[in-house]
């Protein structure tokens, strides 16, 4: 777990070497999976109004069930988006532009790019929430461009072209349609 957080921080800092390490290590898909799930939990807290803070009385079963369902739906939406984004990026970078990386290295690399999504927990804060969510989304996009650049050995233009389409679908359209969230 400690190593996963180090990898998340390194990917958020746009450390090129972390994307090379991740794309070459088959077991690192678990780091990407863990990061996407934790970002899903963070986003679900944002969508449901945060953690339960009124501990004077036990939470109502309906409220708890609704929150758990929302959390599950948010996590599943991000996981489906991650796979969809990885598929699109692989088809464009690996097949169309003849990049070096495979599908699995694309999945691993894009999974750790979700780490700036932890900032989405700050979205409910008035006045700074919306700018922070935009910064988080753009930060994820920039990290993914660097990841595709490193995983597929493409030029920067090819990396941008391979990444943007999947990013729009996975982090903007899919959450809006499935969980009714404003664009993350």
Description:
This protein is mainly alpha-helical and 184 residues long. The protein has one domain (2-50, 58-178). Helix content is 72%, strand content 0%. Helix 2 (16-24) packs across helix 5 and helix 5 packs antiparallel against helix 6. The longest helix has 36 residues, at 61-96. It starts with a helix and ends in a 6-residue tail after the last helix. 40% of the residues are buried.
**Strand residue percentage:** under 5%
Average residue-wise pLDDT = 86
The figure for the number of domains is: 1
SSE succession: HHHHHHH
Class inferred from helices and paired strands? mainly alpha
- The poorly predicted ranges are none
The 3D shape can be described as: elongated
Give the number of helices. 7
Describe the main β-sheet briefly. Answer: none
Helix content range: over 70%
Ends apart, CA distance between termini: 26 Å
Radius of gyration: 17 Å
Number of strands: 0
Strand and helix map with partners:
Layout: H1 2-12, H2 16-24, H3 29-48, H4 61-96, H5 103-112, H6 129-152, H7 156-178
Quick rundown:
Helices cover 72% and strands 0% of the residues. It has 184 residues and is an all-alpha fold.
